[in-house]
Amino acid sequence: MPGPIQSIQRAAEVLKLLAHGGAHQLSVGEISRALDLAKPTVHGILRTLQEVGFVEQDVEGGKYRLGAALFQIGTSYLDGNELRAKALNWSDTLAMRAREAVRIGVMHGKHVLVVHHVFRPDNSRQTVDTGALLPWHATALGKVLVAFGEWPDGELQRYTRHTLTGLDLSTALDDVRERDWAYDLHELVEGEASIAAPIRDRRGVVVGAVGISGPVERLCESPDQPPRLELVSYVREAARSVSRELGGLSW
Amino acid sequence: MSYIAAIDQGTTSSRCIVFDQSGGIVSVAQREHRQIFPRPGWVEHDATEIWTNVQAVVRDALAQASLTHADIAAFGITNQRETTVVWDRETGEPVHNAIVWQDTRTDAVIKQLGDQDRFRERSGLPLATYFSGPKVRWLLDNVEGLRERAGRGEVLFGTMDTWLIWNLTGRHVTDVTNASRTMLMNLETLDWDPELVSAMDVPLAMLPQIRSSSEVYGSYEGVPVASALGDQQAALFGQTCFAPGEGKCTYGTGAFLLINTGDQPVRSRNGLLTTVGYKIGDEPAAYALEGAIAVTGALVQWFRDKVGLISSAAEIETLARTVDDNGGAYFVPAFSGLFAPHWRSDARGVIAGLTGYISRGHLARAVLEASAWQTREVVDAMNADSGVDLTTLRVDGGMTANNLLMQFLADVLDVPVVRPIVAETTCLGAAYAAGLAVGYWPDTAALKANWHKAAEWEPSMEPAARDKGYRKWKKAVERTVGWMDEDDD
Fold first, then answer.
1. How far apart are CA B228 and CA B217, in angstroms?
2. B455:A71 CB<8 A
């Protein structure tokens, strides 16, 4: 069997780079610098990708973005704003049932990006933190996203004495895959807990996570126990409803 | 445990949402219907298709939550307003497709009826193609033999609430909010006004009985059908705006700002409509002032479908965030003239302030900002009419998922913008009104207790920037008016 084909690898790198930028477009120069490839090479790759509709540019000689054909055949790229729009009803309902704040997250580099936030329904003063970045390993949202995605490179900071790293963390992710939901207990902030479940698109790919967070006294039976199953069921039901909205479930 | 099922018969689709006692959504089902465009400016719906879809979405929503009719305490109805249908009393067959609120075929009827403010005192409305009265008049004038049959009492008129209630329960009734959009109802008596009815030349025999918005009209499959509210009034109800001065703005295809003015109708001097907000059973009606903006979400759809720079409506935010401001571009979407507060049918859209610097990101910004500036104009009119300044804007509708727009809205209004925890306030309002009628909820105070903030955006724009932006917006609006000439269609 022949080895990997270099030009396909490079084309994949180019597409990943464009996907990462979201709506931000990149020029040939920017791509060649980012991937450390010669400009003519990048240009050749882009031309070919453009021919098959995987990338597009507005004007001849302009910047590039992912093309429509790519979206049609399906990629794991889902616009965060799109996800929020589809999830609106179900995240509201989750907040009302659980009486806790709801967040929806997607992976953004090495962090969890909050794409939607619903206030805890007690009319207290709260601020929208959509756009904030959370550490993946110390949050239920992040554990779901990494358990069903790729483990990002980089050091994992310990926020409390409960923050998991290394083998403990990897065992915890095995559990998440097994159970199909995740929690954190004092792992980001002492006294706080969170619960999250995966959102899947129509191909079954995990494209986001939805979850609740709050003080352990409200989320757990006792401070050292996993979260209450009733709350877990609300979170999982919300995740299933959003997945259904995305065409990820047929029921 | 029992539930309330709200039927939302909208412009593009019919939906059924099942709610629990906390106002949480249990299930949602939706079916789109055909938009029929026989000629430019004409828009029709097949009322029979809509009735079939409504039966289907009720079935689907119940099935999704594994419920039967026995689990439903009441059905509530909310509907696209002003859309007009006439049908045969015996067979139930519509005599013509329903004429949709956007349809402008009654232009000639309107011109012939004379001064724009002729019916404003009695009906609260300016003469416009928008309302139902002129549409039923057109049907009477143009469907062969219809006027004679109407005179003999063989055919019935209704807005979509009436059409659905008639099919669901066999009763020919409408509610005060829908009736207030016909241009045939007297705002004071809340009954058909003999002078308006005769000026429009519509036989009284074909008009439904006007009832409150929250009472049992009849039953369907053994379940009481217990509310009817026009969609914008339903959203006002769902946002629990029960006290005078409380209001909301719903962002959909267009945007509609309604403020509760209490038990007295307030006549607008600033281009707003006077309408009925709701009427609960035997209680006095609550009136409202309404600022109607024709194009908000429709501009984002246009940008998606006709310009093609985005593939979904939500992506407009992604594109708009690639730049820091509008680059000096302003987009006034006067696609079919301007509604409130201008009411200029001779206006058409412009993009002003174009330079070579403007990119698609700037245009995306200008598209979103148009919704906010149009809201600012309507809020200014509300403040002038009511003499009291709005202190918070409650918002709902699909576009509230757009955080960039919500922040910009707070910035240009200079008041906090608040989204409640159920963005589906239209359906929620219909559910609330039905639930009140059957005792599922005890009173409006219990509904208020269900209202919670889901998000809040605080203004953060420098006053100088706000003033400059508004000045530029107004200049852009000036450039839209008077575009249409006599020889334009």
1. 9
2. no
**For the segment B302-336, what is each residue's pLDDT rounded down to a tens digit?**
998 888 888 888 889 989 999 999 999 999 999 88
Pairwise CB contact (< 8 Å): B455 & A128: yes
Q: Which residues of A touch B322 (CB under 8 A)?
A: 23-25
Q: How many CB atoms lie within 10 A of CB B456?
A: 18
Instruction: Answer yes or no: do A24 and B423 touch at CB < 8 A.
Output: no
Amino acid at position B105, single letter: R
Instruction: Please name each of the domains of chain A with its CATH number.
Output: 6-75 (1.10.10.10), 78-246 (3.30.450.40)
Q: How far is B300 from chain A (nearest CA, A)?
A: 14
pLDDT tens for each residue of B371-422: 999 999 999 999 998 877 888 899 998 899 899 999 999 999 999 999 998 7
Q: What is the token pair recorded at B205?
A: 């025999």
List the beta strands (DSSP E) in B348-424: 350-352, 393-396, 417-420
Among A68, A97, A119, beta carbon nearest to B24:
A97
List Cβ<8 Å contacts ≥24 apart for B16-21: B16/B54, B16/B57, B16/B58, B16/B60, B16/B61, B17/B61, B17/B424, B17/B427, B17/B428, B17/B431, B18/B61, B18/B62, B18/B65, B18/B67, B18/B72, B19/B427, B19/B428, B19/B431, B21/B440, B21/B441
Tokens of A73: 């055949």
* Cβ of residue B24 closer than 8 Å to a chain A Cβ: yes
**Residue contact A89–B28, C-beta within 8 A:** yes
Predicted confidence band of residue B438 (pLDDT cuts 50, 70, 90): very high
pTM of the predicted model, to two decimals?
0.80
Q: What is the mean pLDDT of chain A?
A: 88
The interface predicted TM-score (ipTM) is 0.78
Task: Please state whether B289 falls in left (phi above 0), alpha (psi between -120 and 50) or beta.
Answer: beta
Q: Where are the beta strands (DSSP E) in B421-485?
A: 453-457
